[in-house]
Amino acid sequence: MPTPAAPIDELSSAAHAARLEAEHLWAGRTRLSAWTAHRLDDGTIALSAEVHARYAPKVLASFTANAYSYFEGRPGQPGDRLPALDVSVPGREACVWRTGGVWVELWHPTVPAPVERPEARPAGSVRPPRRGLPGARLPFGRRSKTTTP
Predict the structure, then answer these.
(1) Which among 12, 48, 107, 146 is least buried, having the fewest CB atoms inside 10 angstroms?
(2) Tens of pLDDT along 45-68?
C-alpha cells in the first residue's frame, strides 16, 4: 500500500532523473497531469502522472511499444523493468516501468463498456402478410401460364 503523496521537490536525484526521462519520452504526445510521488512498502519511490488524451488507450499502447525499444539496450540497475501495460487496478490502464530503482506510471481512467441489451419483442409481433393486402403473395407462381379460350 503506498504512503500519502510526497512533495516532488523533496525526492532523490534518481526520482528526478526518472521523471525527466519519462517526460522526455512522452514529449510531443499529449498533456500529462502534475506528477505525484509515493513511497511503497519496500521503500522504493513510485512516480505517477495521468495521461490527458482523447484516444488515451491507443496513445498509451503506442508509447509502451516505443518506450520499450528505448530501454531495451540500455544498462540499468538490478530490478529495473521494461515498460508494460498494466490493468491490475480497476478503472484504469497504465504503462508501468522501473528505471534507476524508481517506479514510473503513466495512466488513464478506463470507462466501462456499455452493456448492450437485446431488444425485446412482444410475442406475436411478427405476423405473416394477409392475402389481398399490399405485400401479400399472389395466388400463383411467376412462371405459371394462363390459357386463354
Answers:
(1) 146
(2) 999 999 988 888 888 888 888 877
